[in-house]
Design brief:
Elements (H helix, E strand, L loop, with lengths): L6 E4 L10 H14 L6 H19 L7 H15 L7 H12 L5 H9 L4 E5 L3 H11 L7 E4 H4 L6 H11 L6 E5 L2 H11 L2 E5 L15 E3 L3 H7 L1
Parallel strand pairs: 1-2, 1-4, 2-3, 4-5, 5-6
Helix pairs in contact: 1-2, 1-4, 2-3
């Protein structure tokens, strides 16, 4: 990377902290057992994920909903497709407990301690659980700014959430990099904006519908420090 990078846009869930794989599988195991659904938790999670991504796309086309509402709507649609009559709220509430207090990766802590440019968190998340997770982990002071999908009324890969982040940093898209774990949300979104994309391959995602090609691939956030040197 030949030019000087003036700021980093950084995904949170799945990048700074552990992705929700374990939480989702725990919820899906509860669902299939409690409702006697003839699917494995893994297959249920993948199918639910398809409905979830559809909800996200609808939000970016003018009908914004919070992540909480998207989770409820997508699980309700999943139940409807299976002919199951059940309330999705208790199952989604279990996920919300994870969003507020996820385990943080040790390499993320090291990265945030040593990065020497402003870092803006850009997350497909509701604002309250995101800020709570940052406070609980002690990482809040490490971020120059935070843009949640709820703040921007936009979900990655939509350009509006990236534009909100750039506006807060008062910098251009050519002067930043975006680091995230989703080929669909992070890499495709950054590529479309002309922002240098860095895919952190945590190999822990349950399902990713993306196929975008990142400019760089790393396995830890500390690897990103060499890109900034």
């Amino acid at each position: 990377m030949s030019r000087r990078i003036r700021a980093v846009l950084l995904d949170f869930y799945g990048t700074v902290c552990s992705g929700d794989r374990d939480a989702v599988l725990r919820v899906c195991t509860w669902v299939v057992d409690a409702l006697d659904i003839p699917m494995s938790p893994e297959k249920f999670a993948t199918a639910w994920g398809e409905f979830f991504f559809q909800e996200i796309e609808r939000c970016n086309q003018g009908r914004f909903q919070t992540l909480h509402e998207c989770e409820l709507a997508s699980l309700e649609a999943m139940f409807l497709s299976l002919g199951v009559n059940a309330d999705p709220q208790p199952f989604v509430a279990e996920l919300e407990a994870y969003w507020a207090d996820p385990p943080i990766y040790s390499d993320a802590i090291e990265f945030l301690q040593h990065v020497d440019v402003p870092v803006c968190c850009v997350s497909n998340a509701d604002t309250k659980p995101l800020l709570t997770a940052m406070e609980n982990s002690g990482l809040a002071p490490s971020f120059h700014s935070v843009v949640s999908s709820e703040m921007a009324s936009s979900y990655k890969p939509d350009e509006r959430i990236f534009q909100s982040a750039l506006a807060g940093l008062e910098t251009r898209d050519s002067d930043v990099i975006h680091v995230g774990d989703s080929l669909h949300s992070d890499i495709a979104g950054a590529n479309a904006m002309g922002i240098t994309s860095v895919w952190i391959n945590r190999v822990e995602r349950i399902h990713d519908i993306g196929t975008a090609d990142p400019d760089h691939t790393v396995t830890t956030l500390t690897d990103v420090l060499s890109l900034l040197a």
